[in-house]
């Protein structure tokens, strides 16, 4: 077991070539011994992946894709990117199962196929799960998480390259985060579901409105190995602040 703490910057459909100028301070921070356990991974839009990879050359910051097609090589799928293509660019990771894609129609079965394709190409997978507000109110959070995990990870044999991002959908982009107890409880439930599938302890990350203010509290939640940061990651000042406050 390592003591790595993951800091995932999910830029969604934001960013332009000029955004790269903001990354110098982050690169400097990543080189400091104090932050050696910080695993920083950027997920820019596909259009900026190559530039980010060039920018982070000779650093320990990695780059990943925000999604991929379930066909792992090449094919006639207009508008899609495969895991092979991400790998060829130099990506190490891919985010799969993000709620914004689930809402757009991605099913548990689709996600499962994508996870298989990513693992076949030696990408590490950030597998997102989480309940909607409606599901939380109906008190079916546990069964939703169980279904997402069991279907999403169906027939997976090697769990070494999988990280789980627990992202309550009602917390993404809303500024609302779960209460400490609730978060701790759900993380422990997720661990229990996973322990029935594998002995390997998958790192569990939290995502949903993480910012440089609530991080001081979130970092104390038991069982969390890092954070998936959306909007706050587009400001390198805020993202640096999140890393500094987590590792102090
Ligand atoms: P947020 O996004 O930090 O802006 O809430 C998180 C995510 O969508 O992964």
What does this molecule look like?
With 248 residues, the chain is an alpha/beta fold. It has a single domain, classed as Aldolase class I (TIM Barrel). The protein is built from 10 helices and 8 strands. It has helices spanning 24-30, 49-55, 83-89, 99-103, 108-120, 133-137, 141-152, 180-195, 215-218, 236-246; strands at 5-10, 38-43, 62-65, 93-96, 124-129, 162-166, 204-207, 226-229. The chain has an 8-stranded parallel β-barrel with strand order 1-2-3-4-5-6-7-8, surrounded by 5 helices. Strand 1, helix 1 and strand 2 (38-43) form a beta-alpha-beta unit. Helix 5 (108-120) crosses helix 7 and helix 7 packs parallel to helix 8 (180-195). The chain is globular. The two termini are 21 Å apart. The relative contact order is 0.15. The model has no long low-confidence stretch (mean pLDDT 96). The chain binds 2-phosphoglycolic acid (PGA). 2-phosphoglycolic acid (PGA) binds at residues 10, 167, 172-173, 207-210, 228-232. 2-phosphoglycolic acid binds at residues 10, 167, 172-173, 207-210, 228-232.
């Amino acid at each position: 077991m390592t003591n790595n703490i993951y800091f995932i910057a999910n830029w969604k459909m934001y960013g332009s070539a000029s955004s790269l100028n903001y990354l110098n301070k982050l690169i400097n921070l990543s080189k400091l011994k104090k932050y050696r356990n910080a695993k920083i991974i950027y997920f820019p839009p596909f259009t900026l992946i190559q530039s980010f990879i060039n920018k982070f050359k000779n650093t320990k910051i990695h780059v990943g894709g925000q999604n991929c097609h379930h066909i792992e090589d090449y094919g006639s799928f207009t508008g899609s990117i495969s895991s092979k293509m991400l790998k060829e660019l130099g990506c190490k990771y891919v985010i799969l199962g993000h709620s914004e894609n689930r809402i757009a129609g991605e099913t548990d079965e689709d996600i499962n196929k994508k996870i298989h394709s990513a693992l076949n190409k030696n990408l590490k997978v950030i597998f997102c799960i989480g309940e909607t507000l409606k599901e939380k109110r109906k008190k079916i959070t546990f069964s939703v998480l169980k279904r997402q995990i069991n279907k999403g990870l169906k027939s997976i044999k090697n769990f070494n390259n999988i990280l789980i991002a627990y992202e309550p959908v009602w917390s993404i982009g809303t500024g609302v985060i779960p209460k400490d107890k609730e978060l701790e409880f759900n993380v422990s439930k997720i661990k229990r579901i996973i322990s029935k599938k594998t002995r390997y302890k998958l790192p569990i990350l939290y995502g949903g409105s993480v910012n440089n203010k609530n991080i001081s509290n979130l970092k104390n939640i038991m069982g969390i190995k890092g954070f998936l940061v959306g909007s706050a990651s587009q400001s390198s000042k805020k993202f640096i602040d999140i890393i500094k406050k987590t590792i102090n």
